[in-house]
Amino acid sequence: MDLEPVMAIVAIFIGLPWIVLHYITKWKTAATITTDDEVLLEELYSLAKRLDERMDTVERLVASDNPDFHPTRLMHDRAVDNQPLNELERMMAEKKGAKL
User: Fold this and answer.
1) CA gap 85, 51 in Å, rounded
2) 89 and 42 within one domain
3) Which of 6, 37, 45, 48 has its CA at 20 to 30 Å from residue 55's CA atom?
4) Contact present, 17 and 67 (Cβ < 8 Å)
5) Per the structure, how many domains does the chain have?
6) Domain extent for 59
7) 73 and 26 in a common domain
8) Distance (Å) of CA 61 to CA 23, 56, 71
9) Calpha distance 26→95 (Å, rounded)
10) pLDDT at 59
11) What are the transmembrane regions (predicted)?
12) Got the DSSP string for 30-93?
C-alpha cells in the first residue's frame, strides 16, 4: 500500500485547516485588550491624575512667588480643558458598572 496519497489527503483535510484555524485564533486573541492591560491603563490614568494635581500645586506655588508667571499648559479649573477628562471618567464609570 502506498502511503503518499493517504498522507496528502491527511495534510490537505486535517493539517491545513488546523494551521489556518490556529493562526486565526492567535490573530483574534492578540487584537483584544486583556484584563491585565485594563488594569495597567487604570493605573496609568490614576498616576496621570496625581501628576496633574502635583503640577497644579507647583504652578500655584510659583504663581504666588512670581506674579508674572502664566502657566502654558491645560488648566484644571477650566471647563474646556476638563471636557476630554470628564468624558474619559464617564466612560470608565460605565465600563466599571458593566463589569459589576
Assistant:
1) 14
2) yes
3) 37
4) no
5) 2
6) 34-100
7) no
8) 56, 9, 12
9) 26
10) 85
11) 6-24
12) HTSPPHHHHHHHHHHHHHHHHHHHHHHHHHHHHHHH-TT----S--TT-HHHHHHHHHHHHHHH
